[in-house]
Amino acid sequence: MHSKRAGNQTVVFKQPPVILAGYNVVGPKEGQGPLKDTFDMVLKDSYGQEKTWEKTEIKMLETSMTRAAAKANVPLDSVDYNLAGDLLNQIISSNYAARKIGLPFIGLYGACSTMALSTALGAMLIDGGFASKVLCSASSHHETAERQYRFPNEQGNQRAMYAQWTVTGAGSILLAAQGEGPKITSATIGRVLDYGETDTNNMGAAMAPAVADTILNHLQDLSRQPDYYDLIITGDLGTVGLQLLLEVLKRSGLQLSNNFSDCGVMIYSSEQDTHAGGSGCGCSAVVLTGHLLNKLKSRELQKILFVGSGSLHSSVSSQQGESMPAIGHAVSIEMS
To answer: How far is CA 143 from CA 71, 89, 108, 131, 192, in A?
Structure first.
């Protein structure tokens, strides 16, 4: 059988899957940011008419899943697999949303890299002949993540200036074997790297080396330079992590161009007091399903490298003094 592998870590799709549609739901803070016009639904408050923040995140994810299929005019029961993940213990947001959706479900945990991971695996399922349509989703909620990973929301702890703000948002794309839209042409699955960072407020520093490793391997595997892409965009390194990423790539000998950005940097304005920008599974999910898809469909962007970034620690591991391992997954998205 002819291998679809290229180099060490990359898969090149012979029949590139198509993104038929995307849909997103965000919280009020995200709906006030620079990308506000690219979101499909903006909640009026953090509860969205639910009784708990966890129920709100589940509802957001359900909505993005069902409406991505509806936006593509595809019956939900014709979708072969539902791939999703989030930040909460036992990925309960995804599990409970999948309970309502009723499709064959594959739950994923890649921390904040989950949207890129689900897209990569969904494309593999389709190009491998195991599916014709796949939903790929991810979500996060500021209050649910704060409660699990940091402090009680009611406590109002002061945040470090290099800390990031977890995005309240859910995003879904519908991939298909045929149709019109941007295509997933390749995927690079990352390695888990750990450079000893223990400060859970400084996730950008923990993730930057792993993201750099994925980008370098992707470019080497495909014999490309960064300027092959109109945009190389990372998931949620924030301002601190993005600066570190560029420094690592520069020291690795890569010829950098001005086509690097980060979803966490883009989603909030400096006036919104998020310090180092956005984070969370929902960060890259809502930027991909809104701003980036819009730019691709209008052909303002023709080729992008979407690199999800994830810090793979837990509240327990941090309390036990463990450092934060991290990972990056990349997918090439191109207009033909």
So the answer is: 29, 14, 21, 35, 27
* Domain-located, residue 308: yes
- Whether residues 212 and 79 share a domain: the answer is no
Picking from 42, 102, 36, the residue whose alpha carbon sits closest to that of residue 69 is 102
Distance CA 136, CA 308 (A): 14
- Do 208 and 101 lie in a common domain? no
Cβ atoms 117, 308 nearer than 8 A: yes
Rounded CA gap, 164 and 264, in Å?
8
Domain that holds residue 83: 19-176
The residues near 300 (Cβ < 8 Å, ≥ 6 apart) are none
Q: What is the pTM of this model?
A: 0.96
333, 184 Cβ separation under 8 angstroms: yes
Residue 1 belongs to some domain of the structure: no
Q: Give pLDDT tens digits for 39-64.
A: 999 999 999 999 999 999 999 999 99
